[in-house]
Amino acid sequence: MALVTRPLIGELGWRKVGILSSVLTSIAFVISAFSPCPEFLFFSISLLSGIGAGIAVSLCFIILPLYFDRKRGVANSIMMAGICMGQIVGPPVARFLQDEYGFKGATLIIGALILNSCVGACFFHPVEWHLKKTRREAVSLPQEDEALLCEQNAKRNSAASNSQISCNESKGDQDLMPFAMLKKQRGGLHSAEASSISRNSSSLCISTIDIAGVGTIPVSELIEEPYPYVQDSNRSSSFCISKTFLRIVRGTAKDLTILRSPRVCILALNGTCFLNGYFNFMMIVPFAMQAAGRSLEDSAWCISISSICNLLLRVVVSSLSDFPRFNKRACYVSGFVVTSLTMFTFPLLVELRWQILTMAGFGCGIGATMGLYTITMIDVMGLDSLAPVFGATSFAVAFGFLCFGPMIGFIRDLTRSYAISMWAMGGTVLCSALSWFLMPAATRYDQRRADKQHQQPEKTNSKI
Questions:
Q1: 3 state DSSP class of 116
Q2: Segment (H or E) for 20
Q3: Which of 230, 288, 293, 359 could be bridged to 302 by S-S, CB 3.0 to 4.6 A?
Q4: 338 within 8 A of 368, measured Cβ to Cβ
């Protein structure tokens, strides 16, 4: 669903998508409480909850960096802390509710708790709503410049040519910058004067312009809108829905084309191998320890210790990413290495204390990588490409879950050994670290391709 999130945002907006996904996830749990048969859970929990939760989680990862610049790492650490706290507190709470109220009551209560996500989604305001307004110093233009500016706007607005033009305070840069260029072409505007106009264009006081007659550039011409709204009221609602659906499909397909970049492919490979490796490892640890003669309480301690270390490292690493001297990429790759080493080591241990210590290192490796997961995407591809990169990477991770899970089970059934299965998962995580060494070559390839695309228009213009 991460692939569909960005096109949905383009059609409905941040808050509507967040609220709808939260409501859908809550409904999935509520109707699961009245499930007539176990097969119904494949529809309610797997399908409906997967769609709603997938969009909600992707939305949080994508929207957070847009609100922060200098403190982006601290904000990311707070979000990561919330995710880890949910993983730590959620299972005991679900077990307590099930013991007290049974399956139906516990599922209804959890559905009600999920519905509180709508409150958080209501705060997904556009950043422009909260920008601080700054006062700029007003600048008066010479008389001849005012006349030239009036002449330019009179030509652009033939309807106002017969009326006397009275100039008031000008708003926006779209009228002043063409004026500055026109004056510069005539040789009457110096570079210092032009820069002064461009700096103070939002607060220039002109006394000879009629703002009502000044033609403005539509926003759609300044900013490319890949998902425009359907505003024709004469068309049927079914036609509008079908057009919206087609735009979402086209937007999803367009986001997938970002996989043509080798850098995105490496990021997708990193996420696929790492997330599939460590998730399957955590699922198989209790069974491996039970087969080795350990109790479920011992395995619970190992999982809890790894989750706590995961939480601490996510918060620390994300906060450190705000400092310029902190090497984010080295820490990101180190998380791969530490996680894979602990996965190779754990099956060889016998004593419980060493197993707990190894699982603590396992949690530290996960925290070091996941704390920089989206930050690394921004560092490699830029903030503007975060949404399609995150969507394409999540798509690859989801496809990996369909392949890695059965493969690990097949290895376990074939070898009758949990150790070999864990080593196979450790090898997939190690592949994430090794693939990162291809990133410099991928960066150079993308740079050369961008240079070629930039040179082709120049050659065409020179021929013309």
A1: coil
A2: helix 14-32
A3: 359
A4: yes
Residues 287 and 369 in one domain: yes
Specify whether 86 is located in the same domain as 185. no
| CATH code, domain carrying 360 | 1.20.1250.20
Q: Where are the beta strands (DSSP E) in 23-154?
A: none
59-90 pLDDT tens trace: 888 888 888 888 888 888 888 888 888 877 88
Do the Cβ atoms of 411 and 90 come closer than 8 Å?
Answer: no
Of 159, 174, 204, at which residue does a domain stop?
Answer: 204
Do 11 and 73 share a domain, yes or no? yes
Rounded CA-CA distance 65/375 in Å is 8
Please provide the DSSP assignment of 241-275 as one string. HHHHHHHHHHHHHHHHGGGGSHHHHHHHHHHHHHH
Question: Is a pLDDT exceeding 70 seen at residue 223?
Answer: no
Tell me, yes or no, whether 147 and 289 share the same domain.
no
Please name the amino acid found at residue 63: I
Residue 384, burial from CB neighbour count under 10 angstroms (0-12, 13-18, 19+): exposed
Q: Is 235 exposed, middle or buried, given 0-12, 13-18 or 19+ CB atoms closer than 10 A?
A: exposed
Residue 169, phi then psi, degrees to nearest 5: -70, 130
Residue whose token pair is 């301690």: 301
Give me the half-sphere count of Cα atoms (radius 13 Å) on the Cβ side of residue 195.
3
Q: Are residues 86 and 180 in the same domain?
A: no
> Residue 85 in contact with residue 402, Cβ under 8 Å?
no
Domain that holds residue 153: 143-204
Strand ranges (E), 127-239:
none
pTM score over 0.70: no
Same domain for 267 and 180:
no
Structure tokens at 266: 């490496």
Q: How is residue 328 written in tokens?
A: 């984010």
